[in-house]
Description:
It is a single chain. By secondary structure, this protein is of the alpha/beta class. The chain contains nine helices and nine strands. It has helices at residues 2-17, 22-37, 55-68, 82-102, 124-132, 149-159, 175-185, 221-230, 239-245, and strands spanning 44-46, 49-51, 72-76, 114-119, 139-143, 165-169, 194-197, 235-237, 254-257. Strand 4 (114-119), helix 5 and strand 5 (139-143) form a beta-alpha-beta unit. Helix 3 (55-68) packs parallel to helix 4 (82-102) and helix 7 packs across helix 8. 36% of the residues are buried. Bound molecules: S-adenosylmethionine. S-adenosylmethionine binds at residues 51-53, 76-80, 82-83, 118-121, 145-146, 170-172.
Amino acid sequence: xxxxxxxxxxxxxxxxxxxxxxxxxxxxxxxxxxxxxxxxxxxxxxxxxxxxxxxxxxxxxxxxxxxxxxxxxxxxxxxxxxxxxxxxxxxxxxxxxxxxxxxxxxxxxxxxxxxxxxxxxxxxxxxxxxxxxxxxxxxxxxxxxxxxxxxxxxxxxxxxxxxxxxxxxxxxxxxxxxxxxxxxxxxxxxxxxxxxxxxxxxxxxxxxxxxxxxxxxxxxxxxxxxxxxxxxxxxxxxxxxxxxxxxxxxxxxxxxxxxx
Length: 260
Ligand SMILES: C[S@@+](CC[C@H](N)C(=O)[O-])C[C@H]1O[C@@H](n2cnc3c(N)ncnc32)[C@H](O)[C@@H]1O
């Protein structure tokens, strides 16, 4: 344990020093710009299901889920379902760890922990693959716009049964949409837990990097986070995560709820 603590302390000091590593930060930015053009986020899968994320953020989510130990993860933006499966697999590991520690027997399908995914268009082949996946007993899905009153009401009702809630926003990336999602779902986040806003890095890209999309630098999740934080002091950007990852689609997007 002592050597593990030393590992984390050394890592913290090392990461704090990264602010002065201009060459590494420049190279990371150049990689981010080039990787958007190369559609790098479309290369990975989680337990066989395509996940549209960067590996760095997948690791960050794994660390957060282990630290927070949520019983509900609400995710907007399902696509193929990889992020739902990834989160469900982490919840399964939390269940397994609880059983090992308590000595209780474990029914692998039963769980008090759930991932709730919301998407405006859940394609039938994606739904079938998610429902057939071994992690499916921990996954629930709602089809509809994440900002519609009907969907928001359903999610609020669903969340009442849970006590440690995490939220991940990864659907439509315009300022207006993400701000509406933040206003609807961030209040459900438990103190100490996180609201993760993906694709804030759009703001750091050269203009017109997404010619076929309604978002761009100046109108994206990062601008929405800035506006949201102006009137929601219960949330703080966890800068330590950005500093450690260096390459992330969510700079300034890992928001921790620090008070009621
Ligand atoms: C980037 S993908 C999600 C990727 C997924 N989280 C993953 O990691 O694999 C964005 C998804 O958001 C969905 N979407 C777009 N507008 C939406 C809206 N208004 N409400 C809910 N989902 C929406 C799209 O249908 C698409 O499946």
